[in-house]
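Review the following:
>
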Amino acid sequence: MSRAPLKLKKNEERRILGGHVWVYSNEVETKETPLTEFSAGQLVDIISHNGKVLGNGYVNAHSLICARIVSRDHRYQLDQSLITHRLKIALSIRERLFEQPCYRLVHGESDMLPGLVVDRYFDLLVVQLGTAGMEVLKEQVIAALDKVIKPKAILLRNDGAIRKMEGLESYIEDALGEVPEQAELVENGVKFSAPIKSGQKTGWFYDHRINRARMQHYVQGKRVLDVFSYIGGWGVQAATAGADEVMCIDSSSKALDWVHHNGELNGVADKIACLEGDAFAAMKALREERERFDVIILDPPAFIKRKKDIKEGSNAYRRANQMAMQLLSKDGILISGSCSHHMSRSSLQNVMQQSARHLDRNMQILEQGHQGPDHPVHPVIPETDYLKAIFSRVLHR
């Protein structure tokens, strides 16, 4: 298949030569290759100002990231054959690392398949096509997944925010077989059901797997609070690891129903209480009732989604951490997370330290966590290195 040229302005090839795979719209020489002449998802050769082919990929004039490189070898381009090959590469490291086939199988650019996310729940796959290039090749993606994994069912969960930025419609549909409302999974030896059709993202967040495993070392015989609990990934694992009591806070009653269900799956429902409501209001109410917890997990949604949100989002992280510290018993453990790329690890540490000092308390950082290996980091794309978890000990003077 022939590919149209997409030419860059003078000196705009440096990032690409350094290993980056994104081309921004302001880097394109639009006089020679007008973006308006490309169809969304069209395959292109990315060419430097002096005519050197830097690689090939696909283009979308509707997006700030107007092109994404798929291969630097002219012999290969994004088609079913290349998708199949890269799926096998992605699968090989997951099979080496995880006993159960429950993991993120494809993590976009980090697995050399930009715009594609696939989460695996045993023989069921949930797929997100986040870009026009992947949407155009939807049938080839499904065929490649069927060939490599041979799943019983595949769900297309194409309702993410990135699709709006790409000018794509949102939809959820069964792509292969009959997809149930929920999927079963096992994480760190604990059983869960996840609402794959109605829950957040693909229904589950595998990225905190290792951090949740480390959390289990801190909760034996303790009273635990799980804030922003969603369906109980942290809280249920705390209960199965020997916590005496677990309280889960979430604004969604449906999510808390799933917490109870997942507690029952593991025989620990009697240890788990749920509190529905805004997390900040709930923590304030618990403080007024003089409740105290030995371990608190704070795993909020992304408070900082864009650069312009940094000030407001950082304040939200500060408030959340400070309120959590006020609920800690003496010598308590606070596990604070952030999935905001724009909230750096050092910034999160500073927020926690400022919160501790404001309360006239001392803080020790015991451990620091990262996203799991099924969410690999692309070394030149900082956005792929997004997850932080800081295990801290907060001491009264």
User: Anything to note?
Assistant: The two ends are 70 Å apart (CA to CA). The domain at 80-180 is CATH 3.30.750.80 (Transcription Regulator spoIIAA). The longest strand covers residues 328-338. Residues 296 and 334 are 5 Å apart (CA to CA).
